[in-house]
Design goal:
CATH architecture of the largest domain: 2-Layer Sandwich
Oligomer: single chain
Strand content: 15-25%
Radius of gyration: 22 Å
Distance between the termini: 35 Å
Shape: elongated
Number of domains: 2
Number of helices: 11
Strand order of the largest sheet: 11-10-9-12-13-15-14
Length: 377
């Protein structure tokens, strides 16, 4: 079985996305924020799913009445499947403990808490984010107990445990434990090279989550989307590289590229913030982002323009076909659930034009998704 943590708690959207696949996959809601899929063992890798925050391959139910019981169940699985020199990672996360109603503002949420409208058994985490409080504490105890038990039974395997959240290599295995209550949950073991092969769906980050970047000096909070896309891509804009920022105003993405030491051509009908316009490595072009063409290929196309998703999608495909850039990070603004089927064209055409590409609803996204990757060849 495969389990997915749905992005932004959008279970219906994820089910619909699975159903539009080729072939169509019939998923079901296991519990709010958690979608299950019975996938045949011989099935090929699923395509990118914009609304899947994290994926648990080969997930099996586990009942464990105590922290030590959890540790024993996990270690027994490790001993039977991992060799001593096998690099592996361990993610233990809760799916209970805190309820954050979908799309509810902070003021409304605190009102609900004060009124006590929610019962304890209704307190789950529909977004797939790690819960705070008791759930998170128990997960930390389970992870610590696994380490202690490995010290007794297989020290070499403990030495192979990696804590970093860098991108997977072909040698990395991933062990994930999802607690749906203190005594119930799921155990997923994805042996190498599956985490790397399934990298469009299996995140190296715990629960697929990344903290949204904060920088008060940035022109807007939109800068955080580019920072997160860089982290998920495993590749940052570097000093000396050439970037084109389409729909750049007020300059959040140009700001990131300039901070990295890159040269930026910013294209928009409206000007950027005054200090960015004066920056010696920024060239401002007042004009239409969709008609701009660079004189020669650039290192990065970055684009957070507000436009219909079809128009942005066609622009990205055109740049890829012409070989106009090496790397790209592009936001697709969606107006609602009816726009998600428009992303299916990207899933069909991008494999022939790009490699190491991702299509996902970022933690910093709202009504939008982000596509990023490297042009093929």
């Amino acid at each position: 079985m495969i389990l997915f943590l749905s992005a932004a708690g959008d279970d219906a959207g994820l089910l619909a996305e699975l159903g539009r696949g080729e072939p169509a996959w019939l998923g079901r809601v296991e519990r709010p924020g958690l979608v299950a899929l019975d996938l045949p063992p011989a099935a090929e890798v699923l395509p990118a799913l914009a609304l899947a925050r994290q994926t648990f391959l080969n997930a099996e139910r586990v009942a464990a009445p105590s922290v030590n019981s959890w540790a024993r169940a996990i270690v027994e699985r490790l001993l039977s499947q991992l060799s001593d020199d096998q690099p592996w990672r361990l993610h233990v996360l809760p799916h209970y403990g805190v309820y954050r109603p979908e799309r509810m503002g902070a003021r409304a949420w605190h009102s609900v808490k004060r009124r006590g409208d929610l019962k304890r058994e209704e307190m789950v985490v529909p977004e797939g984010q790690a819960a705070s409080g008791a759930g998170d504490n128990r997960c930390q105890w389970v992870a610590a107990a696994v380490r202690d038990l490995l010290k007794e039974r297989r020290r070499h395997l403990l030495k192979s445990l990696r804590d970093e959240s860098s991108l997977f290599t072909a040698n990395d295995s991933l062990v994930q434990v999802l607690l749906t209550s203190p005594e119930q949950g799921w155990l997923s073991v994805a042996l190498a090279p599956r985490p790397q092969v399934w990298r469009q769906l299996v995140s190296p980050f715990r629960a697929g989550e990344l903290a949204v970047a904060v920088d008060k000096a940035a022109p807007s909070r939109a800068f955080a989307k580019l920072v997160e896309a860089e982290q998920r891509l495993g590749r940052r804009i570097e000093a000396g590289e050439c970037c084109v920022d389409l729909g750049a105003a007020p300059g959040g993405w140009s700001y990131v590229a300039l901070e990295r030491g890159a040269r930026v051509t910013a294209v928009d009908r409206s000007p950027l913030r005054e200090d960015l316009l004066r920056h010696p490595r920024l060239t401002f072009v007042r004009g239409d982002a969709f008609t701009y063409r660079p004189e020669r290929p650039v290192d990065w196309l970055i684009c957070d323009v507000i436009a219909d998703p079809e128009r942005t999608l066609e622009m990205l495909l055109d740049w890829l076909r012409r070989g106009a850039m090496r790397w790209f990070v592009v936001t697709l603004k969606l107006k609602g659930a009816g726009d998600y089927p428009k992303l299916d064209r990207l899933k069909r055409e991008l494999p022939g034009l790009a490699e190491d590409w991702f299509l996902t609803h970022l933690c910093a996204n709202k009504g939008e998704v982000c596509v990023f990757g490297r042009r093929r060849g």
